[in-house]
Amino acid sequence: MNSRPTQHQSHEDKPVLTLIVQHNTDCPALARAAVSAFCETRDIPDDTLATLKLLVSEVVTNAVTHPDLDRPANVRLLARVDQGIIRVEVIDDGSGFDPVAREASQSRSGLGLFLVENEAVRWGVDERGGNRVWFEVALDKHD
């Protein structure tokens, strides 16, 4: 198991979590633990943290399950708190995909993007730095 969590300040002086883990089935658990530790010293409500860990788990699981990779690869997780939101980015070395959020009634699996669509205030997919899925969760859902 190879993981390297780091916390540092960005050029904008915003707290940032960076986790790079070897592409394997331990990635979702490591990502959840890193996000929990990152949020520990911040004033993040328990229900928001639970949502955040669920979405991280779903997106990182997708990054492990779906890419067509023939070589050892990494999954990268970035998180940043900024102006009432926490932004998470998950990057893998896969070839990319067209995001389709399924309806909950369509299947018993493949609901990761459905959850992201319903729980994040914003989200998207692009190929900046690899195959990147990002989402933002409001820190105070009552705003």
Layout of SSEs?
Elements: E1 3-9, E2 15-22, H1 27-40, H2 46-65, E3 74-82, E4 85-92, H3 112-119, E5 122-126, E6 131-138
Succession of helices and strands: EEHHEEHEE
Beta-strand content estimate? 25-35%
Protein structure class: alpha+beta
Strand order of the largest sheet: 1-2-3-4-6-5
CATH architecture: 2-Layer Sandwich
Radius of gyration: 15 Å
Describe the 3D structure.
With 143 residues, the chain is α+β, with helices and mostly antiparallel strands. The chain has one domain: Histidine kinase-like ATPase, C-terminal domain (Heat Shock Protein 90), CATH 3.30.565.10. 29% of the residues lie in helices and 31% in strands. The chain has three helices and six strands. It has a six-stranded antiparallel beta sheet, with helices on one face. β1 (3-9) and β2 form a beta hairpin. α1 runs antiparallel to α2 (46-65) and α2 packs antiparallel against α3.
